[in-house]
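Curious: why this fold?
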Amino acid sequence: MKRQTYMKIAMALIPFLFLLLLEGGLRLWGGFAREPLFREVRQLGKALYQVNPEVARRYFGPGTVALPTLYPETFAREKSSQIYRIFCLGGSTTAGFPFDGQVPFPQQLRYLLSETYPEKRFEVINLGITAVNSYTVLDLLPEVLAQSPDLIVIYMGHNEFYGAYGSASAVSLGQSGGLVRFYLRLERFHLVQMLKRMVQAFTPAPQAPAGDRTLMESISADRAIGYGSEKYRRTLHNYRDNLGLILSQCAGRKVPVLLSNLVSNVRDLPPFGDANTGGTTINGLLARGDSLYRAGQFVAARKAYLLAWESDSSAARLWYRLGHTALQLGDSAQAAHYLYGARDRDAVRFRASGEVNRIIREAAERHQASFIDMEGRFRRRSPGGLPGNHLFCDHLHPDPQGYYLMANAFYEAIRRGSLANSAASDFQAQAAPYFVTDLDWNIGLMKAYKLVHRWPFPERPVNYDQYPPYGDPQSVRVAYDYLFNHHDWMKAHYDMADLYLQQEKWEKARREYHAVSLLLPENPDPYSLIARTYKAQQRWALCAEYYQKALQFRPNSGMLLYQLALAQWELPSRSAALANMEKAAYARDFTEQEQANAHYYLAGFLVESGRVGEARTALENLLARYPSFQPARQLLQQLRISPD
């Protein structure tokens, strides 16, 4: 009897054993691995980790419109005691959409911290991904915690309905948070990835072309979710659970968290939709109120709107109109009540409601995370306490000034908290974002221009000839070329700088180079290009300063040493110029012609320093190596016939 029982157990375990062996074989082979968050790379002989730009493939199928990507930032594989490592997690606002490069708040935050604490090396890694939510952040978190972060910054909550695996998303497993979390854990198995790819391979491609749809339009399924409905409440319940799990895991690893509530455009963005379209009565009263409002009869308009509101107080559009009527009547408190109420009742749920912000505050208190009242900061910087188009470029994404406001909020919290006892410089943050140019504004605003012509905004043809330029009209052409042709952000800034150099607008050209240096602080090229602009103006001290900055990251570069020596000679700083020209003359990265030029200039420096004998020796050595170098031969002849 026992033998039969054992045989049954063994037979039942055979499929599981087979699956276990198959999983082990796939791992040994390295096949069907899930997209990693980080990859190992080597740059200039250094072992680094690099953010995987394609990690969003975990959450979106191969047919997804415009798969969101991450910038391939690198950070040290071996974390030294001087490194302070911050990971920023969240959705499109964390990513900085629709702006690129140095505009997003993590990049501005890194600059602020680096200038304030020059003895530390700050790694602020932006892991924001468009169209994801708390499920994705929870899924990425173990890989983030494995990299020994000193701090995690979290800004998330707008995408809980429409982001990947959200309750109203086309990429969904329903409303069970436990099921979604279980599925994402299963996806870590190679066997599950193999099965997933097999299903994708045999799934027919969509018949309807994607056309000109946006990513959020393509993954949004349920486009009318009532305030307080079952789906609304269930989604917020899942968000609360996910946030709690995230904070618990961070606390378990003793990693501090900065948790921010959410901001959106409440003043200048009408609700996208109502859960109910309304009846004849409410629509008639609404039309009457609109007519009175346009005529400037605001008291009468408010009465008409309130009558409609008594018939259906759930109508977000009525709340919005009441808010603007209160603004016209000078009642900012009533305006805030109605406009925030309109945001909460917007049935197309791209903007998080006030309840989401309450969940964030409560979670921070419960898990002893540091809380930032970002909404309060935006309200204090807004007329009437109502954030609108002066800080946002669409419904919820800040403009560069708004992103800088976010960066400052995190910066001040870090200074008060984790870095309270660190030695700080006398650096004072400026009021405007650092090195953000008209080109940066137009790159983002042109992307937003398309967005606001697509659902959930009123659908209209996108005609870029009608796009209103921000700042310098020249930058619109360069931005357009970047967005629709080459997609190389650095090239766009260098192209813009070239235009300014042709016009001898030196400071504007330097701002384009500085923009690149803020995104790529360890790249010497923008510093050397800035130095060239100062050389063109014969501003030798600043020219030398920027060549020295470039040399910090490429200390053996012959050309940088050569150019620095020329600038130092003009200062004059003769001994330093001689030393650096001698280093350049023997630089390994120089061609023979470049080495010959450096030796020739070294000889010239020696002559002008009165060291003629040493100059003759240098020229003789030069001609022994490069006998066809005629300028050196001519100078040597002059020195031989002239007295010492």
